[in-house]
Amino acid sequence: TNTKKATNERLFAICKLLENQIVYYNWVGFYFRNGDKEELILGPYVGEPTEHTIIPFGKGICGQVAVSNKNFVVPDVSAQDNYIACSITVKAEIVIPIFVNGKNIGQIDIDSNTPDPFSEKDEHFLEFVCNEVSKIL
Ligand code: SME
């Protein structure tokens, strides 16, 4: 059955795969909407532990994607004023929303220690990943 534990194990495996196989993916994690609350909760992730396990809608890159329902590619995090820093080594970030029945229920968040590493190829690839993930939730 699709227990929460089994789902989280699969999501963690996806994080590990992405972080291991793509050199410029240095922190890979999932955030999910907390029920009907306007906040995100950190799910499975790989990389440095973060204090930002709860992110209010609108706050940071992740919180903005929770509201906009759109991909957010940040080539240079230092140029963003609405940004939540998790680690000083991070140079760039990409966040792609996950939709279930047309509803934005969470996102994949990837940090890179390489400046400006993300292209449209990453967006398309991660949209594919998010679409696959939406089927197992
Ligand atoms: N940088 C994110 C916060 C999450 S950490 O990257 C893990 C943001 O600005 O929303």
Task: List the secondary-structure elements in sequence, H or E.
Answer: HEEEHEEEH
CATH fold naming: Beta-Lactamase
- Structural class comes to alpha+beta
Bound molecules: methionine sulfoxide
Strand coverage percent: 25-35%
Radius of gyration: 14 Å
Order of strands across the main sheet: 3-2-1-6-5-4
CATH class wording? Alpha Beta
N-C termini distance: 12 Å
Rounded mean pLDDT score: 97
Count of alpha/pi helices: 3
Domain count, please report it.
1
Ranges where pLDDT stays below 50 over 5 or more residues in a row are: none
Q: What is the global morphology? A: globular
Q: Quick one: how many beta strands?
A: 6
Helical amount: 25-40%
CATH architecture: 2-Layer Sandwich
The name of the CATH superfamily reads: GAF domain
